[in-house]
Amino acid sequence: MDWLPEYLKNNLQGGDSLLVIPPFFNSEFIGIGPYLLQALARQQGKRVDILQFDLLLARTLGVETYREIQNSAPYQMIGERLFAHYAYAMPPLGHTVAAMANQEQAITPGTRGLVYTKEPCGFTTQDYYALEAQCYALMQELEKAMDGLVQQYPVVGVSLSFANQINPSVAFLNLVEKVHPEGIRILGGSYLTEEKAPGLLSLLPTLHHLFVGESERSFLNFLRASDRSGFETLIPPAGTLPLEAMPLPDYEAYAQQVMAILGEDFFREQVRALWYESNRGCWWADKSKCTFCGIAEGGFRHKPMDRVLEDLRWLQGRFPDKYVFFTDLIINEGFAGKLLAALPDTEALPPLGMQLKVFRELHEVAELRAIQARVILPGIESFSTRLLKRMRKGTTGKQNLYFLRNAQSMGIQTQYALIWGFPGDTREEYDYLRWLIPKISHIRPPREFEAAQLLRDAPMYQEAGTLGITNLAYWKVYDMVYPEWADKASLANYFVGDFPSEIYQAPELLQELEALVVQWRNHHRQSCLHMQSIGNGQYLIEDRRMVHGYEMRHHLVQEPRAQHIMTPTRMAACTEDHAWALEQALGVVLDDWYVPLVLAQSDLLLMLDQSATEVPIQQETAFDTMNS
Questions:
Q1: Phi, psi of 576 (to 5 degrees)
Q2: Fold of 245-522
Q3: Does residue 423 contact residue 464 with C-beta atoms inside 8 Å?
Q4: CA-wise closest residue to 55 among 78, 87, 22, 80
Q5: In principle, which of 167, 287, 405, 624 could form an S-S bond with 80, CB 3.0–4.6 Å?
Q6: Does domain 3-239 have CATH number 3.40.50?
């Protein structure tokens, strides 16, 4: 680690506060919170420096190894285990190391522990011990290298964003206490809520202050104070700042940090997107929070559209080769149409990514494409309307499937999950996937097929009694990664409970569905169901899907039939053309609607789908590249 002292000396020049981003934050994304606080402090004449502890570890372990740990299943608690020894003098990797590869042992005995279908990380036990030794050695090197540098900051804080960052955060704050005992140590970040505070304070009994909730204003008040003795240990929000009054996070400082630690090639090639915040909260949660949603943030508000457009222009001008991915929990209602209305016809936006609620209409998806949305995370979760109602999703199976068909035709990449295991669910709410998946093997498959998790801030935990969930208990792995004296009931984010669920009683069906999803993923690229015009009002459908054993089939249809089979239609209004399409599996029946499955290039789809309305849309399409 010969590079570490020189890097720290060049980047820790002293200031009013040092904020640290701990592992295992995503190595390819900016930590919006700390860099926003840095920009806000600068407006107040204060200097805040950022130390990317996460990237220092990525360089130490190797980026690919870091990434594999970062993306590992939560029950493995790899990040927490790697820092348990330094943080609490626990045995290296904590207790019951074998549970890292055994989810039933890590979660709870019995079927409720079987929630993850993907394999754990491919490291051996010997590998984990070697990785732990590297982490411990890094902490020792940081102790030596930071002594004499960290003393230049009267306030040192760690930004905690996710549950897998607790032990690395404790480890770093303990390091600071060793080398800079007279300094003020603080902890904050989006993960912190008042309910979790006792658990975190049990791990950090000498911590000076813990900021909970939205903390821009409270942090600035703290930073400006000449006498901080009057601040309580637990610092609640001091009100909120208007989003439009906040500056952009210091993206320039972030880029410099990434290039200094991981190199210019990494920033150019691996940092493909810059995160951007246009709103906070979730407007759907304000109406009806999804039962499995573990996000604590509430009170939806958003930036005005002219400010969003100004920010996007700046980001595109400064980083023209990057996507802009909205960190918003859910994009604002009508966002695409409003942005188009504010955008001059000749202006192009940077490619965008966002999380959103499923749109019901084709023209809304066309608007997404018109604003350069290229990657989206829609809240799909199921194609069963009954199950979606249990989740409080506010969508239907028909809407979800129609949306995926439209997005793929528009060249928009979707990333979504299918979730199972809800109180009161029935076998029927999953059994339909046995006939549906083979027919939609040409639609982009889900990234995950996993059980709903009982998360602390989710209604399935907060409203457990109402939902019929009893015997709540935190995952057993918390006893393995935290010391005996820790308040684990407050620390825990993952729980198990008992509730009636037919899918949990049907392991053979789960295995069959998992096998179908795996086949869907493995053979998606060889599947197709695509319509194209061949002139004179005739259209050719190419069909190669799981339902036909991936054998290529062709159908030639005239324009009236093409219009019928490409348009969602109530079953009561269906024609002979729809009946023919159902026989050929070119559409399916969901919620008493005929739902079209055939893809087409965007302009053809808008012409044939009779539910479409005229909207601005670029003529060139990414269809061929996105669906190859």
A1: -60, -30
A2: pyruvate-formate lyase- activating enzyme (3.80.30)
A3: no
A4: 22
A5: 167
A6: yes
Residues 599, 605, 611, 617, CA torsion sign: positive
Between β-strands 279-280 and 301-302, what pairing exists: parallel, antiparallel or unpaired? Answer: antiparallel
DSSP for 108-147? -SSGGG----SPPPS--HHHHHHHHHHHHHHHHHHHHHHT
Whole-angstrom Cα distance, residue 79 to residue 72?
9
In tens, the pLDDT along 267-293 reads 999 999 999 999 999 999 999 999 999
- 615: pLDDT strictly greater than 80: no
415 band by pLDDT with thresholds 50, 70 and 90: very high
List the structure tokens of 259: 């290039």
Q: CA 598 to CA 562: how far, in whole Å?
A: 10
Tokens standing for residue 281: 């909260």
| Per-residue tokens: 533 | 């015009």
Does 3-239 match 245-522 in CATH topology?
A: no
pLDDT at 356 over 80: yes
Percent with pLDDT over 70 in the chain? 95
* Number of residues in the chain: 628
Q: Is the peptide bond before 24 cis (omega within 30 degrees of 0)?
A: yes
Give the pair of three-digit tokens for residue 230.
Answer: 């009057």
Q: What is the CA radius of gyration of the chain?
A: 26
Q: Is 239 exposed, middle or buried (0-12, 13-18, 19+ CB in 10 A)?
A: exposed
422: CB partners within 8 A, 6+ apart: 291, 292, 387, 390, 391, 452, 460, 501
User: What mean pLDDT is reported for the chain?
Assistant: 93
Q: Report the distance separating Cα 615 and Cα 328, nearest Å.
A: 25
User: What are the residue ranges spanned by the domains of the chain?
Assistant: 3-239, 245-522, 526-626
The residue type found at 535 is G
Q: How many CB atoms lie within 10 A of CB 530?
A: 18
Cα–Cα distance between 28 and 403 in angstroms, integer? 29
CA dihedral 463, 509, 386, 384 (to 10 degrees): 120
Closest CA to 581 of 541, 524, 546: 541
Model pLDDT for residues 541-598, shown as the tens digit of each residue = 999 999 999 999 999 999 999 999 999 999 999 999 999 999 999 999 999 999 999 9
Q: How confident is the model at residue 344 (pLDDT cuts 50, 70, 90)?
A: confident
